[in-house]
Write a structure and sequence with these properties.
Layout: E1 9-15, E2 28-32, E3 35-39, E4 42-47, E5 51-61, E6 64-76, E7 83-87, E8 97-100
Parallel strand pairs: 1-7
Antiparallel strand pairs: 1-4, 2-3, 2-5, 5-6, 7-8
Length: 102
């Protein structure tokens, strides 16, 4: 039996501060090279071919459609699944914290 090829793509973990549980009412928007994807809070996987990607993450809050929007450029290698973590800010007009974990 042939072995399955390792997955290639990108994982994004969207998190909020302990007092930010009210944000769970709104989806997270993860944009990969300008294409928006609405997701639930937590872990999201995107199967992607190897390459360089611009990843922006934000969430909706009341009348602010892109609260905490922040971006990172990620290089995805064959068989690699980099993990990006984004944490919503404490204040609506601040950027969220974003970074590569692995």
């Amino acid at each position: 039996m042939a072995e399955a090829a390792p997955q290639t793509g990108l994982a994004v973990w969207a998190d909020h501060r302990p007092m930010g549980y009210f944000l769970l009412l709104f989806p997270v928007t993860i944009e990969i090279d300008g294409v928006p994807h609405k997701r639930r809070w937590g872990d999201s996987f995107f199967a992607l071919p190897p390459g360089r990607y611009e990843v922006q993450v934000s969430c909706r809050w009341m009348f602010t459609p892109h609260m905490g929007r922040n971006a990172i450029t990620v290089e995805v290698e064959q068989g690699d699944v980099p993990l990006i973590q984004w944490t919503a800010p404490l204040i609506v007009f601040q950027k969220g914290r974003i970074g590569r974990i692995s």
